[in-house]
Amino acid sequence: MEFHPNRAVGLLAGGTIIACLLTPAGLLVMRLLETPLSLTFLAYCLVALALAGLAGIFVFWCYGCWSLSYVVDRNQLTLNWGSIKQIIPMQAIQKLCPGTEINGRLHIRGINWPGHHVGKGSVEGLGETLVYCTHVSPKDVTYVMTPTVAYAISPMDPRAFAAELRIRQHLGPIQTVRQHARRWPWTRWAVWHDPWVWLLVALALMVNVLLFAYVLYFYPSLPELIRLHFTPLGEVDRVGMKGEVLTLPGFAAAVWALNAVLGLILHARERAATYILLGGAVFVQLVLWVATLSIVGRSVSG
Length: 302
Known about the structure:
Oligomer: single chain
């Protein structure tokens, strides 16, 4: 049987946060349509992308709030939230404690806004507590006690939940399950915990952003026609519109994105290939930096 918490407050608060992030992002995008290519244009882009990315994280967290449920069967109690399922065997549940019987305050480390509380917590007298709640006051919380850890939940009808749990425990399990957390497969990839991967990804991205910044800093002062290629003797053999200089950082960004995606996919099978791809992305950024310095520098100097 499935029980749900009261999710209205949490979804409303999360939706408000998302709106507060997307509104300035949208305004910046509209401003971009009127802003000439320059460092200001790049700054608007970066801020808009950061706000949109942060809003995306809150969208996922709101999905977690919407999906939060507590499923009771003869074998286990399952706490569902987004990408996580907490499996609690029926025989491991010692008792249920209403929040009104707990004197200590619940301290939460994780997602924690009005009506949505998920993460690790601690309560004086209970010790480590995993929190999957939408409570707005301590009386809404029910603590599921096990020998190793407590779980803080907030079913909308705690009495019906407790009654159903007692019935299932009385019937007894029909198969043995272990107490554990189950996550979406891709969230368990080792790549998320490899610092070298993220160092190389961040380094290539930083170099690329600096390349864009360099080009856009000089872009307003570039002549409409610029020299794009030179022979080994230094003679010009190709001239084009100044907008073509943006293809260099654009190509570098495409290489960064492609190598990052391929690296993430290959990491589980061939970690060395991931490092080579990401290191190659850094190398490409540096090579295109040299080419850009040559083109822009000669164009600016006349």
